[in-house]
Amino acid sequence: MSLLRRFVRESINSRFLLQSISGRSISTVNPNPIGHPGHRRTTAEFDNLIFEAGSSGDFEAVRRLLNTRVVNACFNTTATFKFLTNTESYSSSLEDLRRVLPQTDAGYTRKHAYETLIARLCKLNRIDDALILIKDMAIGNFELSTSTFHPILNTLTKKNKIEEAWRVVKLMRSHGVPMDVTSYNYFLTSHCYDGDVAEASKVLRKMEEDEEGKVISPDTRTYDALVLGACKSGKVEAAMAILRRMEEEGLPVLYATHAHVIGVMVESGYYALSVEFVMAYAGKDKRLDEENLGSLASKLIKRKRFNEAKLVLKEMSVRGLRMGDALRDFYQTNVLKS
């Protein structure tokens, strides 16, 4: 009996015994690429591992990594499916991804993997393929939601493919997925960027009379789009009125919203008014002051409105605001030495 125990004890770790049982040689490849105990992978490391696996065609490893990264709170990023590019291998890689994604862990892991891939396809301008993934999610009951459609709507409206975007909205509703304020904002921004106030007004009415019967309240980006539309139409007073409405409703104003107003004022020749505008907001947010005053000074210098530019730069100096190199040179040469 002691001889038998000795044989088992000595053989249990024997590579020869394991090889004999399996009938094949023992691989020296680490079956767990996630890392050694005690080492916590970063989000970037998971992206790199998925890139390597996807590029080499190891989609089972891609599936495992998608599962493991979420467990480790390293969520997907815009770089997760970066191996998928518009090359000869695109079609086969996409089919492999369609095969393995349904095998990822149910719930958030699977849903977010699909949504990240859809965003990647939109980046590659593969809208039809993104819609195929939407169909896959619907068939598999993989929790379609409004956010799933956001990259598609964003891409289409940016390319001014408005009719196609509304067809996607129809598809959303056929799956019981409602529009939200972000979805409407994509349409609104597209029309406002073109200065098409009439079409923008139609979108606003759609928001107020949403087909789902919900009240869709405008948010900061809604107002930013409206300010942009007013500025593109050269309607400075309307842009100012929208800003005042934002303040009355207690909504934060984006830096970009101020930039729209400053830009149209300078382009319209309202130089003194533009200075008054930025000064009215000065002192509340240092970074906003740097953005507003710096941008205005640069635009005034470009228009050769040096007196107004000097006034703005003096104000920046008094307030201790950071200037870019070009503005600093202009200030030292034309303000300090004058």
TrEMBL record:
PPR repeats lie at residues 145-179, 180-210, 219-253. The keyword Chaperone does not apply. It holds the Pfam family TPR_24. Keywords: Repeat. Signal peptide: none annotated. Residues 109-205 form the Pentatricopeptide repeat-containing protein-mitochondrial domain. Belongs to the PPR family. P subfamily. This is Pentatricopeptide repeat-containing protein At3g56030-like.
